[in-house]
Design brief:
The complex is a heterodimer of chains A (226) and B (84). Chain A has 9 helices and no strands. In chain A, α2 runs antiparallel to α3 and α7 packs across α9. With 84 residues, chain B is mainly alpha-helical. Helices cover 62% and strands 0% of the residues of chain B. The longest helix of chain B has 18 residues. The chains are: A mainly alpha (226), B mainly alpha (84). The interface between A and B is large, with 60 and 47 residues.
């Protein structure tokens, strides 16, 4: 299954509030890889030096992806906003420790992922760490994938049904699926983000897709479609 | 392609599928799929799911006032009365 999409980098937006007026102009955004990253890197350095406008600029660059990740993980707007706020507060506290060993967006996402997982743990979900999130469960044997070939999903996946199925995934699988298939991160980036092996990332994504397939097929059967 | 791959059963094939898909190669070229409609259907379904997931973007937008909340919280943390 070839992957050609890079993680989407957002164009800076004009944010409400006077604090954004001091964001220094940067080069025109043309492509995610050629222009946005250098601009982002510059903003990171300035934010590390205490430039509040640069930090506001980073918020503009990353808010939608961080918020979307939080929203997909908790399925609640108010909670997602609280988590997004906490993620950016963490970023403000820790940005000085970013050394550029990985892409800033990957590092930022790792902060957000930890905030989300901490939240899920507080809510009492059976998820206490990234390690646990990545730990395979016993019902994931390959034999589960068999099924009648006349109930194929091809061309028949309803967007809302997929949204529901993703929301119903166990948090660990949902996290991998959101990061890879929805946000477009590559396995090596996810491995860095979640401190797991690339093979583990591939394996967990595969299991997430298998679970989604089961859920979508069940949904189709419920609709009486074949 | 070796004879082992041609005679691989579904369980063996599916055990390798995560790596096969993750390798970036076209999994449809695997010899097992030439004679197995079940695994062919499985692969097609998984590709359909991955493709459909890309349509779930665009990402959601937080409320406009979220930045103000964050900015206020930062200022509160930085206040001398509220040391970190």
């Amino acid at each position: 299954m070839p992957r050609s999409r890079s993680p989407k980098t957002e164009v800076p937006e004009t944010l409400a509030g006077a604090s954004l007026s001091d964001v220094s102009p940067g080069p025109e955004v043309r492509t995610a890889t050629a222009v946005v990253e250098p601009y982002g890197d510059d903003a990171v350095a300035r934010a590390q030096a205490g430039d509040h406008g640069a930090f506001a600029h980073l918020y503009g660059l990353h808010k939608r992806r961080i918020y979307s990740l939080c929203l997909r993980m908790v399925n609640n707007v108010a909670e997602a906003e609280d988590l997004t706020q906490e993620a950016f507060l963490q970023l403000h506290r820790k940005i000085g420790t970013f050394r550029g060993d990985s892409a800033f967006s990957t590092w930022m996402h790792r902060l957000a992922v930890n905030v989300v997982l901490m939240h899920l743990r507080k809510k009492g979900l059976a998820l206490t760490s990234l390690d646990e999130a990545m730990e395979p469960t016993q019902d994931d044997g390959p034999g589960r994938s068999f099924g009648a070939p006349d109930l194929m999903l091809t061309g028949s996946i309803d967007r809302l049904a997929l949204e529901r199925a993703v929301a119903d995934l166990p948090p660990g699988y949902r996290l991998i699926f959101v990061l890879h298939d929805i946000e477009g991160y590559e396995h090596n980036e996810i491995a860095t983000m979640l401190e797991c092996s690339i093979g583990n990332s591939k394996s967990q994504l595969h299991k997430a897709r298998l679970k989604l397939r089961d859920a979508l097929r069940t949904s189709l059967q419920g609709q009486g479609r074949r | 392609m070796s004879e082992d791959l041609k005679t691989m059963d579904c369980r063996e094939f599916q055990a390798q599928l995560a790596d096969l898909i993750g390798s970036g190669e076209d999994a449809h070229n695997h010899p097992h799929l030439k004679s197995c409609p079940l695994c062919r259907a499985l692969l097609n379904d998984l590709e359909t799911i991955a493709e459909a997931a890309r349509q779930l973007l665009p990402a959601q937008q937080p409320k406009e006032d979220l930045w103000e909340r964050i900015e206020s919280a930062i200022q509160k943390e930085e206040s001398p009365k509220n040391p970190k």
